[in-house]
Specification:
The protein has seven helices and 28 strands. The protein has helices spanning 90-101, 104-126, 488-491, 497-526, 540-554, 558-561, 564-568; strands spanning 148-155, 163-169, 176-182, 197-201, 210-212, 218-223, 230-235, 240-244, 253-254, 265-270, 278-283, 287-292, 301-304, 318-322, 331-336, 341-345, 353-358, 375-378, 385-389, 394-398, 406-407, 415-420, 427-432, 436-441, 451-454, 460-465, 471-476, 480-486. Helix 4 (497-526) packs antiparallel against helix 5 (540-554). The chain is flat.
Length: 569
């Protein structure tokens, strides 16, 4: 039976604070230890729950009804006839026409319609809607937006960064190119650096087509135009390697050490011969060597590059070489480390000799580069004019002048190489150390760059334009070859462009000859001693007056060409 107890509290005691006192502990209950209870322990099951707030979507696809297509034949016949007239019978149609012409309404309808057609006929007789304007005239060069587009990138498979020192195109078309890879920085070549160079297929950008093996890095390598399966390469150790791609990636011939260069071979060119085996090479050891690839144990000719002094001549190291069949099979241009360009002539059964020194004051020249001449290129349409790149500018020379004929403004960065367009007489390309490539078009304008484009973040080291003129391969200091596609304005020659550029070069040549004549006349008046320093003094007023008269004769001003006259203003 339940017992209930009621406790009543006074309202005044309700809500009072409790007072606690310290008392002795008391045992109210005790539970003894039972080891058997431990067997009854059960571990709690761990549950993993994944929660997210991403909305769920469902995807459905529906195919529309297919349209059935059929081919039907349509026959067009002469219409507009009455039902009782058979248009296939010429007799019936002729009778109907005669009867219609006698109808008085027919004449009135024709008169009404001719009122609208007569003005149209008169306009057609006045203006020929189908006339071809300027059909017989050839348009001159029309400036437009010049563009270059990147087509492909060919990266060096090696882990260590190497510069693309030279690029050579396959002579049979824009299908392959060879790239030479080396590190030309002093004492920066490690023992682990790979030595091989590569042949690339422009349609396969990931893997090289062929590897060119060598014991020393190739600085330059070129295809043989007469036999596209053979190549010649100049090595860092001064040797020449001869490759035959039909026999594998290893060189089939090497030059003898005692006959080779002592320094790196900076440039090599194939020469035109009946056998197609002659070539020439230059190096910073100051020698221009001629070879026959059938016997590389010895040279066929040798020319020591000197400054031409009679007493103790100084040797000039060569860093660039140019030879062109159209300029003469015996003429060679060598760019030296001292900023001077040398003209070498190699005649049959005679030793090669140096004919001219361009840019040196000791030989009557002027305008030398302040650094090594990294590139010397003849104009393919006017071979007696050639382009050089040395320091911060490029200069254009003529074989009969000892000084530069034209000069570009100084760039904020060094120039590394240059190349003429093989299809445009007035277009050439300049590569810079800041990764930009500039395109000059002298047929369009001469006072500024026509197109400047950023090619790479690294310094550009080499450039080569394919013979068709629409593709240009540019190499940089990190081993990447960039294939650029040039627009039609940079690759297609305009009408009469060759003659216009030729006359322009001849005009500048005459101008420089006139200025040289002024210098000689002024020096003769002041001092009879031609060897003294005072003989080089120039009457500035006479100089500018002669220059003004020259530009007035040709109908131009000095501002258009950036000449001394414009700079004086």
């Amino acid at each position: 039976m339940n017992e209930y107890e009621y406790i009543y509290m006074k309202k005044k005691d309700f809500g009072r604070y409790c007072n606690f006192d310290d008392v002795e502990p008391k045992i109210l209950g005790q539970i003894d230890r039972d080891p058997t209870k431990g067997d009854m322990f059960i571990e709690q099951t761990i549950l993993s729950v994944t929660l997210d707030n991403i909305p769920q979507f469902s995807e459905h696809s529906v195919n529309t009804a297919r349209v059935q297509t059929k081919s039907r034949v349509m026959l067009h016949v002469e219409g507009g006839w009455s039902k009782e007239i058979d248009y296939s019978e010429a007799q019936d149609t002729l009778k109907w026409r005669k009867r219609l012409e006698k109808d008085p309404m027919f004449v009135a309808s024709v008169r009404q319609l001719t009122k609208n057609t007569v003005p149209c006929l008169e306009q057609n007789n006045t203006i020929d809607l189908f006339e071809h304007y300027f059909h017989e005239e050839e348009p001159e060069h029309m400036p437009e937006n010049l563009t270059m587009k990147t087509v492909a990138l060919f990266k060096d498979p090696a882990d260590e960064k190497r510069s693309v020192t030279k690029i050579g195109w396959h002579p049979e078309g824009a299908s392959k190119l060879v790239g030479s890879y080396a590190n030309l920085r002093f004492q920066r070549m490690t023992d682990e650096m790979p030595m091989a160079s590569f042949v690339w297929d422009i349609n396969e950008r990931n893997v090289p087509l062929t590897e060119l093996r060598t014991t020393s890095p190739l600085i330059c390598c070129q295809y043989n135009k007469k036999n596209a399966d053979t190549l010649i390469g100049g090595c860092y150790n001064g040797l020449l390697n001869f490759y035959d791609l039909r026999k594998g990636p290893a060189p089939v011939g090497k030059s003898a050490v005692e006959a080779s260069h002592y320094d790196p071979v900076y440039d090599v060119v194939w020469l035109h011969s009946k056998t197609g085996t002659d070539c020439a090479s230059t190096s910073s050891d100051g020698r221009l060597l001629f070879w026959d690839t059938r016997n590389l144990s010895q040279t066929t000719d040798e020319c020591v590059l000197t400054d031409g002094a009679k007493d103790e001549p100084k040797t000039l190291g060569g860093v660039s070489l140019e030879w062109m069949q159209e300029a003469g099979p015996t003429k060679f241009l060598v760019g030296s480390e001292h900023g001077i360009i040398l003209s070498v002539t190699r005649r049959p059964k005679k030793e090669p000799e140096i004919n001219s020194w361009f840019g040196t004051e000791e030989r009557g020249g002027y305008g030398r580069h302040f650094g090594p001449v990294y590139a010397v290129k003849r104009n393919p349409f006017n071979p007696k004019f050639f382009l050089t790149v040395g320091d911060w500018c490029c200069k254009m020379w003529m074989e009969e002048l000892k000084g530069p004929m034209l000069q570009s403004p100084y760039y904020p960065s060094f120039l590394s190489t240059a190349s003429w367009s093989p299809t445009r007489p007035g277009v050439f390309f300049l590569c810079r150390h800041d990764g930009k490539m500039d395109v000059w078009d002298y047929f369009y304008r001469m006072n500024e760059v026509s197109l400047s484009q950023k090619i790479s973040e690294a310094a550009l080291s080499s450039v080569s334009v394919q013979s068709a003129g629409s593709l240009a391969a540019v190499g940089d200091a990190e081993g990447t070859i960039t294939l650029m596609h040039l627009c039609d304005s940079l690759s297609v020659m305009a009408a009469n462009e060759k003659n216009v550029l030729g006359s322009m070069f001849e005009r500048e040549f005459k101008r420089e000859k006139n200025l040289e004549a002024i210098k000689k006349l002024t020096s003769n008046k002041k001092d009879g001693d031609h060897g003294s320093k005072d003989s080089m003094a120039i009457d500035q007023s006479a100089y500018q007056a002669r220059e003004k008269s020259f530009f007035a004769d040709v109908g131009m001003t000095g501002d258009d060409l950036g000449t001394h006259l414009a700079l004086g203003k």
